[in-house]
Amino acid sequence: MVTRSRWFPLLAVMLCWSILIWVLGTLLAAVLLMNWSSDKDGFDPFATLLAEWMHDPLYWLNMGALVVVLVGSQIIFLLPLLLLRLRPGRPRSLGWSIMLASLVAAMLTVGLAMALMSLVQLLGGWVSDWGAPLYFGLFAIVIDPSEIDRLTFDGDLAFILAAACLFVSWILWGILISLFMRRGQPLNRLRRLVGLLFAGTLIELVLILPLEAMVRRRTNCFCETGSFQALLGGFVAALWLLGPMAFLILLRRRPAWWSRHCQRCGYEKDRNAGDHCPECGWAWTSANAGD
Fold first, then answer.
1. Among 17, 28, 33, 249, which lies 20 to 30 A Cα-Cα from 279?
2. pTM given for the model
3. DSSP 261
4. What does the pLDDT look like over 42-84, one tens digit per residue?
5. Region class of 281: left (phi > 0), else alpha (psi between -120 and 50), else beta
């Protein structure tokens, strides 16, 4: 039975992390929505936008919902590892962790495709002709389910293609990441997976930022351009990955517990345990443990 004294530090950390996500999310959203084409006013437009948001109830509602979704999904992603420490003795499934990591990978994949679309439009001189309102469209459907009729049945082909690519990529990445997770210990595999995703996110953002700057010089409405949608997805992915990455780095600084326990069920090893966990059968030193 988990004592209350062990939950209080976790709740305090969750509260502090939620506040940090709220602040970072607000700053990133303001940077995304600002006009990048002119810097003669310095930081005044940035400060003005933040001041307007502070008095806008929709800001508090939307940002609060975003923080709940981000922090909640981060907890779900890390829950198997948390439960191993708090309630050892039962095998923990990584199904939800794999599903969430696959969604992040799918967002990066679709974001890269949309950025390439914007590059082609930019080179062809028709960057304002049509866009791909993927995330704004999905957000609109969540807020008002009737929006799905307008976005899918009224001929918004760009949204349909982008959403279909996101769904297919999610499935494909789920298969690949499932195979990846089977080849080693859960903690080591999750650490490597998060590191690879975060590195890929940073590389994608570095590539998209100059493209987005060029696109904004050619259009007055940039919110539905492929490069903006890709940048939005990349920032959300980076913000989400910060939580698991920080947690896994902290776990790495205390490897003693994980070296003495099974990483699948938390069973404590003993001298006569052999190469497999006697509780769940997970391999400790065989090929499954290799990284």
1. 249
2. 0.82
3. B
4. 667 788 888 899 998 988 988 898 899 999 999 999 888 777 6
5. left
Reported as a pLDDT band with limits 50, 70 and 90, residue 162 is confident
SS3 276: strand
Q: Is pLDDT at 100 greater than 90 in this prediction? A: yes
Helix, strand, coil distribution of the chain in percent, nearest 5:
75, 0, 25
Whose CA is closest to 92, among 75, 72, 74, 78? Answer: 78
Residue 202's identity, in one-letter code, is: L
Can you give the pLDDT at residue 121? 82
210 C-beta neighbours (distance < 10 Å), count: 10
Domains of the chain: which residue ranges?
A: 4-257
Which tokens belong to 156? 């918004």
Where do we find the tokens 């975003």?
66
Separation between Cα atoms, residue 34 and residue 37, nearest integer Å: 9
Alpha-carbon torsion 217, 219, 222, 227, what sign?
Answer: negative
